[in-house]
Amino acid sequence: MKFTQMAKANEIERDWIVIDATDKVFGRIITEVATILRGKNKPYYTPHVDCGDYVVIINASKAKFSGNKLETKNYFTHSGYFGSTKTHKMSDMFENNPEKLYKLSTRGMLPKTTLGKNMLKKLKVYAGSDHPHTAQIKG
């Protein structure tokens, strides 16, 4: 009989993948990144093990948005106190801090556990084309 092999955390080899966001649709980038971070693109994907790769997104401020999401979509934050709901427009977040917007969007597609939190730590986002991870990236 053949059995499905379950990946073990100490046997996983992680790669570094660079994604250039120039003129790509924001949502398509995020779904691709979430798939890579979870490790679903690998043949030995195991749901309870962090088997994904590191992802570096460059030129994050040059992504495109489909429809009119930049003008209409809002993000809400709440501190827990009464009346402390704050609204942030997507266009303001994209102009001021695109790194935070990418991480927030990717976090919504990952598991809501400590495993998902550890997966999100492997995401590195940079607004420009320069990044300090050139030594880790092969070829």
UniProtKB/TrEMBL annotation:
Pfam families cross-referenced by the UniProt entry: Ribosomal_L13
GO cellular component: cytosolic large ribosomal subunit
Domain of life: Bacteria
Alphabetical keyword list: Ribonucleoprotein, Ribosomal protein
GO BP terms in the entry: negative regulation of translation; translation
InterPro entries from the UniProt entry: Ribosomal_uL13, Ribosomal_uL13_bac-type, Ribosomal_uL13_sf
Cross-referenced HAMAP family: Ribosomal_uL13
Task performed by this protein: This protein is one of the early assembly proteins of the 50S ribosomal subunit, although it is not seen to bind rRNA by itself. It is important during the early stages of 50S assembly.
Quaternary structure note: Part of the 50S ribosomal subunit.
Family: Belongs to the universal ribosomal protein uL13 family.
Name of the protein this chain belongs to: Large ribosomal subunit protein uL13
Species of provenance: Poseidonibacter parvus
Lineage, highest ranks first: Bacteria, Pseudomonadati, Campylobacterota, Epsilonproteobacteria, Campylobacterales
